[in-house]
């Protein structure tokens, strides 16, 4: 009976390909939009993942997410260092500054200043230059995306002519101070999509406009065996600041973008549209397919086939179409992700997304099969032969 059901499904090629197209497109749209959403959201806490050395991130209590820098007084660093259970605490500067390019253009850059002594917080992967080069006079590192895109320099006097990437040895101006590129780093793309500049903390403070509060974040390493929740409470009690683990800080950042912006709604509408497309196309095609084959179901029922056997046939047809559509849709999504050049589009296909897509396809197939099964259960062989 199952073989007959599959022959019936594959034999009606027009409706079979229509069902397959609907399920494939629905899977593709749901998974692709979800992967872009996950990729975009993961960029909001890229800096936290780029700095694995810290056990805790100490911030101003009013800070809402990692880019919402609320500068603290420099004395906050000494207060944190005085807390029992800390192995080391390093300052971190983070702020948006305008860089003046050699060709006279201007570009907003995300400037990150790391501890002068230890360089904790500096990029781990250097494409050009060495980490120690950051200690050279006026030295800065820029990340590869900015060097090859926003910071590219024209080769001729014509600004619209051919351009070259920013190179080691080139100079910028930050707040009318010279900055020499000493290295090119590779980092995770950030949500702000602006070039990232790394330098030492004191140099970053010099680049920034004068301000009494220059300390953006404090990176803390706990002593071996130290209980982190207890250390967090001590820091908060003794300093009045807030300490987060990397996971907590990432979730706090993610929660802000999820609850305070319209990004989830926009992507949710696209995902819902994919689901509705699957219901409209695949569901309707599968229901019509069952209606066209009622005469065969009626004939088999007249020859002694039970309703359970007929329902099993419909279920096999729905399962076959669902598995094929899901596989093609997930394959197309993976191919789409591989075809995206570099980091131009946020795309992160985690293991959760195929599970979500599978659940969505199951719902679509069950809905379509349920309507079809209802017609089969109520089928009277006499009506088929009379018709």
Describe this structure in words.
α2 packs antiparallel against α12 and α11 runs antiparallel to α12. Strands 2-3-10-5-9-8 form a 6-stranded mixed barrel. The protein has helices at residues 2-11, 13-42, 46-49, 75-81, 144-148, 201-207, 228-239, 246-259, 263-292, 294-302, 307-339, 352-377, 381-386, and strands at 56-59, 86-100, 106-114, 125-128, 139-143, 153-154, 163-164, 171-174, 177-186, 196-200, 217-222, 242-244. The protein is elongated, with a radius of gyration of 30 Å. The protein is an alpha+beta fold and 387 residues long. It has 2 domains: 2-43 and 262-386, no CATH class; 56-244, no CATH class. The mean pLDDT is 87. The chain is built from 13 helices and 12 strands. β8 and β9 form a beta hairpin. The chain starts with a helix and ends with a helix.
């Amino acid at each position: 009976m199952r073989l007959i059901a599959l022959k019936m499904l594959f034999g009606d090629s027009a409706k079979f390909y229509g069902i397959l197209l609907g399920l494939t497109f629905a899977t593709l749209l749901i998974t692709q939009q979800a992967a872009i959403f996950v990729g975009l959201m993961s960029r909001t806490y890229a800096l936290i993942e780029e700095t694995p050395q810290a056990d805790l991130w100490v911030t101003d209590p009013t800070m809402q997410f990692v880019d919402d820098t609320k500068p603290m007084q420099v004395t906050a660093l000494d207060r944190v260092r005085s807390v029992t259970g800390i192995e080391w605490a390093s300052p971190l500067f983070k702020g948006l500054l305008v860089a003046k390019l050699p060709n006279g253009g201007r570009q907003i850059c995300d400037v990150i200043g790391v501890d002068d002594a230890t360089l904790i917080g500096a990029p781990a992967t250097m494409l050009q230059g060495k980490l120690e080069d950051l200690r050279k006079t006026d030295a800065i590192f820029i990340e590869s995306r900015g060097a090859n895109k926003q910071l590219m320099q024209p080769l001729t006097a014509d600004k619209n002519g051919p351009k070259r990437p920013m190179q080691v040895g080139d100079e910028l101006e930050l707040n009318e101070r010279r900055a020499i590129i000493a290295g090119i780093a590779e980092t995770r793309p950030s949500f702000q999509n602006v070039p990232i500049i790394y330098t030492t903390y004191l140099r970053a403070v010099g680049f920034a406009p004068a301000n009494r509060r220059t300390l953006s974040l404090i990176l803390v390493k706990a002593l071996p065996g130290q209980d982190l929740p207890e250390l967090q409470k001590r820091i908060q009690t003794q300093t009045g600041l807030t300490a987060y683990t990397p996971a907590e800080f990432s979730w706090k950042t993610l929660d802000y973008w999820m609850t305070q912006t319209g990004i989830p709604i926009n992507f949710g509408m696209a995902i819902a549209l994919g689901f509705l497309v699957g219901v409209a196309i695949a569901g309707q095609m599968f229901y019509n397919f069952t209606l066209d084959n009622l005469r065969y179901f009626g004939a088999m029922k007249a020859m002694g086939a039970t309703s359970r056997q007929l329902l099993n046939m419909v279920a096999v047809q729905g399962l076959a179409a669902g598995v094929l559509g899901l596989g093609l849709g997930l394959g197309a999504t993976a191919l789409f992700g591989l075809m995206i050049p570099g980091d131009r589009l946020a795309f992160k296909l985690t293991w959760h997304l195929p599970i979500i897509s599978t659940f969505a396809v199951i719902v679509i197939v069950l809905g379509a099969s349920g309507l079809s099964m209802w017609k089969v259960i109520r089928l009277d062989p006499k009506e088929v032969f009379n018709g």
